[in-house]
Amino acid sequence: MSRVFAYCRVSTADQVTANQRQEIEAAGFAIESRRVIEECISGSVAASERPGFKRLIDRLEPGDVLVVTKLDRLGRNAMDVRATVERLVNSDVRVHCLALGGVDLTSPAGKMTLQVIAAVAEFERDLLIERTQSGIRRARSQGKRFGRPFLLNGEQRARVLQRLAVGATVTQVAKEFATSRQTIMRVRDAMASDSN
Predict the structure, then answer these.
(1) CA dist 128 → 123, 141, 180 (Å)
(2) What's the pLDDT tens digit per position in 67-88?
(3) Torsion angle (degrees, nearest 10) of CA 75, 79, 81, 84
(4) Domain residue ranges of the chain, discontinuous segments joined by +
(5) Is residue 169's pLDDT more than 70?
(6) Are 154 and 119 in contact (CB under 8 A)?
(7) Over 70: is that where the pLDDT of 150 sits?
(8) CA–CA separation, 111 vs 85, rounded Å?
């Protein structure tokens, strides 16, 4: 006979998992308290990095059932949820999500639901990347510089370039300006990229 586990997660210490436990009981799942894993950890942490969830994974056996109230209990985003569910499916663990009408995410209908969610997540990720790249191009066209700011002012950078041009080594120039070799190399490299 399969064992039934519940995973209840809250994000902050002032929240409690009691509501999640009540929802699971109201849905008809009678779960022994020793099989209810409760955790207080941010949803931004991947499921695979959560201490309580790791302990749960170690306890689950083929044929077991895991119940959650919402998909976001299982991961930080749709891709993380999908990876978590796939890992459970590969371990022959069924996953029930109450917010999706109690659908078993390992069933054909559950798999389709996850595929739709993953497709939407991928679309959102692609849009985010596109907007980010567009913003970077716009900022560059307006003359904005990216990366760490220079530790040396404009006059000092010009003198660094002069010293390097007459054959001084990066180490020598770094000592003269009481800075690191990396700072001098950044000045040199910035000049090279500006001339391209």
Answers:
(1) 9, 20, 36
(2) 999 888 888 777 788 888 888 9
(3) -100
(4) 4-117, 154-194
(5) yes
(6) no
(7) no
(8) 9
Residues 193 and 171: their CA atoms lie apart, in Å, by 21
Helix (H) or strand (E) holding 157: helix 154-165
What is the per-residue pLDDT across 37-66, written as a single tens digit (0 to 9) for each? 999 998 888 888 999 999 999 999 999 999
Phi/psi zone of residue 19: left (φ > 0), alpha (ψ -120 to 50 degrees), beta? alpha
Instruction: For residue 175, give both structure tokens.
Output: 């000592």
Give the residue numbers annotated as catalytic, written as ranges.
11
Q: How far apart are CA 194 and CA 158, in angstroms?
A: 13
- The answer to whether the beta carbons of residues 35 and 3 sit under 8 Å apart is yes
Judge: domain 4-117, CATH 3.40.50.300.
Answer: no
DSSP classification of residue 134: H
Q: How far is CA 58 from CA 85, 91, 95, 147, in A?
A: 15, 11, 16, 43
